[in-house]
Amino acid sequence: MHARNVLARIQQIIVLTLFGGAVAAFIVGAQWGHAWTGPGFVVLVVTGYVGVLGIEFWLLSRSYARDDAERPRIGQLLRAWAIEMLVAPRAFLWQQPFRSASEPDHLPVDARGKVGVVLVHGFFCNRGLWNPWLRRLRAAGVPFVAVSLEPVFGSIDDYGASVAAAAAAVEHATGRPPLVVAHSMGGLATRAWLRRDAGARLHGLVTIATPHAGTRLAGHGRGRNVEQMRQGSAWLADLQGPDATTTRTNVVCFWSDCDNIVFPTRSATLPGADNRHLPATPHVAMVFHPAVIGEVLRATAAAGTAR
C-alpha cells in the first residue's frame, strides 16, 4: 500500500463499517419484525457523533475564565456546534476516505513566475481535505501541491520531508518560493521543517487553527504527534526557540473563539504574526471560511502583480 493511502484506508474502513452496521440492522429488524432496529442504529451513531462534538464544545467553554471578555456566548457556541456537525462529516466520511486523489496537483507549464501554494493538512487528515480549495486554485490559475502526511500517529518532525519536497516541487515549477497554507497540526509540521532547515525559503505561511502553543484536548489523546501538541510539551518549547517562524517569513494566523479542538483558543496565534479572528467558527469549518481562501487568493494575485 502506498504510504499516502494509509489514512484514507483507515477512514474507508470506518465508513464502510458504519454503513454495513446500518444495513445489517435494517435487515435483522425486518427479519425479526422489529422495524425500529435500523433507524435506531442510525440514531445511535448520529447521537454519538453529536455527543462527542458536544463534549468538545463543553471543554472549550470551560477553557475560558468566567470574566474573560473573549468568552463566546452560548448562542455562538451552539451555532459553531451546528456548523461543525454539517461540515466535518463531508470531510471525514467522503472527501478524505474516497476522494483524496480526485484533485491532482497542479504545476502547469505556464507556472513560471507565479507564486504557488503548498497545502498541509492536520491530524488524522489527508490531502482530500483541501478538494474545494484545489478546484478554486486551479480555476484561478494558481499552481499548487497538496501533501498527505504519514505516518498517521508519528512524530511531527517526520512530516518535514513531505512539506520540503512539496515546496521544492512548487519552486522548481514556478521559480519562486511558495506560500504554505496549513491547517491545525500542519502548521506545526511546517514550522518544524523551517526550524530544522536553515535554507528553507517561503513566500509566506498561512496557518488555520494551528495549536502553536498546544491544546488541552491533546491531553485526552494518544500518539507521538498528539503528545507533542500538548500544552507545555518539551517539543513545543523547542519550537519557540531563537530561530522563530516569524523571523523567517511572513505569517498570517487564523484563529477562532469557538475552536472546538484548539483551546485555549489564543493558542492558535503567534507573537509577531498577523493574527486574524474568525468569530464563532469551529475547527474544521475554518478551512472553508471565505476569509481564509480569500486571503490566499489575494496574496498570490498580489505577488504575481508585483512580479
Question: Which secondary structure elements does this structure contain, and how are they paired or packed?
Answer:
Layout: H1 6-32, H2 37-62, H3 74-98, E1 117-120, H4 131-139, E2 144-146, H5 160-174, E3 179-183, H6 185-196, E4 204-208, H7 224-228, H8 234-239, E5 251-255, E6 274-277, H9 290-306
Parallel strand pairs: 1-2, 1-3, 3-4, 4-5, 5-6
Description:
Helix content is 46%, strand content 8%. A 6-stranded parallel β-sheet has the order 2-1-3-4-5-6, with helices on both faces. The radius of gyration is 20 Å and the shape is globular. It starts with 5 loop residues before the first helix and ends with a helix. The chain is α/β, with parallel strands linked by helices.
Helix content: 40-55%
How would you describe the oligomerization state of the chains in this entry?
A: single chain
CATH topology of the largest domain: the name is: Rossmann fold
CATH architecture of the largest domain: 3-Layer(aba) Sandwich
So what's the CATH class of the largest domain? Alpha Beta
The CATH homologous superfamily of the largest domain corresponds to Alpha/Beta hydrolase fold, catalytic domain
What best-fitting shape do the alpha-carbon axes yield? globular
Separation of the first and last Cα atoms: 42 Å
SSE order, one letter for each helix or strand = HHHEHEHEHEHHEEH
Q: How many strands appear in the DSSP assignment?
A: 6
Uncertain segments of ≥5 residues (pLDDT<50)? none
Strand content: 5-15%
Question: How many structural domains can be distinguished in the coordinates?
Answer: 2
Mean pLDDT level: 94
What structural class results from the helix and strand content? alpha/beta
**Number of helices, where a helix is a run of at least 4 consecutive DSSP H or I residues:** 9
Strand order of the largest sheet: 2-1-3-4-5-6
Structural Rg: 20 Å
Largest sheet: 6 strands, parallel
